């Protein structure tokens, strides 16, 4: 109950405070490339229930036909999209998913059905018992996931064999340790990590 109350309060406050930024990003996306401002995609939510996640569009409108994985320097990414993805600003519209109750501020990142099908049965039950979130341990560890996958000849295989097992281990760790205090620590760590990316990007 406390977690849900905090989600609603924080998501509402975040949307209100960030509204000028959100509107500015929306205008930038429209001016930068043809297509809608938002990108919607089916993800697997709590208890295996599918929902349509919302993000700012960072790729060309025909991009998903080329595959669901996005690699570093992917030619499908727009100019505005490269900036938004680097600072994770494309994820901000998911605050609306938090208000709707399909997501939480903290929890395992929601995966597409294709990859959820590869979860071991016992792990699947444990991970999907949680409401998916905007950030968690795995999201922090995999901030540069697209760059990591770009190093492999077969990124899809690498995701299944290397990245996904690491994510699932982190998801299970969160499931075992979840608490309001733990959520607060993860949110603060996320803010610090993103601020550090900005500092590193601006350093000569």
From TrEMBL:
GO molecular function: phosphotransferase activity, for other substituted phosphate groups
Top-rank lineage group of the source organism: Bacteria
Domain Bacterial sugar transferase: 3-193
Coiled coil: none
Annotated PANTHER family: COLANIC BIOSYNTHESIS UDP-GLUCOSE LIPID CARRIER TRANSFERASE, QUINOVOSAMINEPHOSPHOTRANSFERAE-RELATED
UniProt similarity note: Belongs to the bacterial sugar transferase family.
Protein name, as recorded: Exopolysaccharide biosynthesis protein
Lineage start: Bacteria, Pseudomonadati, Pseudomonadota, Gammaproteobacteria, Chromatiales
